[in-house]
């Protein structure tokens, strides 16, 4: 069933349950400055994926703290000149898997860079990247790791990885660095929102049913994981809940969205209990660049499914031809 505000209310919704940290910009400026001292040092090793219509590279680049992050670069075998590129981030618990799982965008003629997710990749698709970062007591999952300090929080490391994945993709000679878009579903959508707000050299962010926005509202209206991991953590660490939400405010998609200048092309599902519609609209409604949103009234966290992929290709065609 539809579990959130009406469509008219969603279109007008503004998230105001948690103030943005006064030093939000300074925090992320310092974080990216520190990260930038370490070269991205992307390496592209040819990989035999047993596929004839694409060329695949096993990628390693330096993410947060110089940690090695894996990925795939998948290129159309029949190509000429540097290509428009889509950098894709992965949903909660998933990893980069096998190249044959990522053929849509290369088949449409684009370079496709898939970033592996540190410490994940053991839930529904395999991954190959460790997360060496320190963390305090956490509920099983990832969203409460290091939640008492924004400097130690898991998503600080992951957001920096996602930011640097764009630079890693741009380092390949078959990628046109002036024509890059970012996309992803759920957690991957959240990363594309964050990168869209942190970078001003990408053409578009295309987040599908994005996670990690409007934390206070999300934890009050859904019992579904991953937001429920935060609820369970706060229920156990009763006296530290406000400190946890103070950390989360540095990672809220709404704050990144306001700083975006590129196109934002969202999707939302009105029966989604995992990323409730108002949390998606919270980021969409304050997006700083041109924006649009596809609404799927009768879907839950699957969103538009393959229609979201097709919509991504249409956006890429509009932007890059």
Walk me through what this model shows.
- It is a single chain.
- With 321 residues, this protein is of the alpha/beta class.
- The protein has one domain: 3-Layer(aba) Sandwich (Rossmann fold).
- The chain is 33% helix and 20% strand.
- The protein is built from 11 helices and 9 strands.
- A 9-stranded mixed beta sheet has the order 1-2-3-5-4-6-7-8-9, with helices on both faces.
- Strand 6 (175-185), helix 5 (187-198) and strand 7 form a beta-alpha-beta unit.
- Helix 4 (154-170) packs across helix 5.
- The longest helix has 17 residues, at 154-170.
Dominant shape: globular
Q: What is the beta-strand fraction?
A: 15-25%
How many E-type strands? 9
- Helix/strand order, N-terminal first: HHEEEEHEHEHEHHHHEHEH
- Uncertain stretches: none
Report Rg.
18 Å
Largest sheet: 9 strands, mixed
Tally of helical runs: 11
Span from first to last CA?
Answer: 39 Å
Query: Remind me, CATH topology?
Result: Rossmann fold
Strand order in the largest sheet: 1-2-3-5-4-6-7-8-9
Main CATH class: Alpha Beta
Given helix and strand content, the structural type is: alpha/beta
GO molecular function, one term: carboxylic ester hydrolase activity
InterPro entries: AB_hydrolase_fold, AXE1_dom, CE7
Protein name: Cephalosporin-C deacetylase
């Amino acid at each position: 069933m539809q579990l959130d505000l009406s469509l008219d209310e969603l279109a007008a919704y503004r998230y105001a349950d948690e103030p943005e940290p006064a030093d939000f910009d300074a925090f992320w400026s310092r974080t990216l400055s520190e990260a930038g001292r370490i070269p991205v040092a992307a390496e592209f090793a040819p990989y035999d994926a047993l596929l004839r219509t694409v060329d695949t590279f096993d990628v390693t680049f330096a993410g947060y703290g110089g940690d090695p992050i894996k990925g795939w670069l998948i290129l159309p075998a029949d190509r000429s000149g540097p290509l428009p590129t889509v950098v894709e981030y992965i949903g909660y618990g998933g990893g980069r898997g096998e190249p044959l799982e990522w053929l849509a965008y290369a088949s449409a003629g684009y370079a496709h860079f898939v970033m592996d997710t540190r410490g994940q990749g053991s839930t529904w698709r395999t991954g190959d990247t460790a997360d060496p970062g320190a963390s305090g007591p956490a509920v099983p999952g990832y969203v409460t790791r290091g939640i008492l300090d924004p400097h130690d929080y898991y998503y600080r490391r992951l957001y920096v990885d996602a930011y640097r994945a764009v630079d890693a993709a741009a380092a390949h000679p078959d990628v046109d660095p002036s024509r890059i878009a970012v996309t992803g579903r759920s957690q991957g959508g959240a990363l594309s929102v964050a990168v869209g707000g942190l970078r001003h050299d990408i053409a578009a962010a295309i987040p599908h049913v994005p996670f990690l926005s409007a934390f206070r509202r999300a934890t009050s209206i859904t019992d579904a994981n991953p937001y429920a991991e935060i609820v369970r953590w706060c229920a156990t660490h009763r006296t530290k809940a406000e400190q946890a939400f103070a950390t989360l405010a540095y990672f809220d998609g709404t704050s990144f969205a306001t700083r975006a200048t590129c196109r934002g092309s969202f999707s939302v599902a009105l029966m989604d209990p995992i990323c409730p519609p108002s949390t998606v609209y919270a980021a969409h409604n304050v997006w700083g660049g041109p924006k649009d949103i596809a609404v799927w009234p009768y879907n839950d966290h699957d969103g538009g499914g393959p229609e979201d992929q097709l919509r991504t290709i249409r956006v890429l065609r509009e932007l890059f031809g």
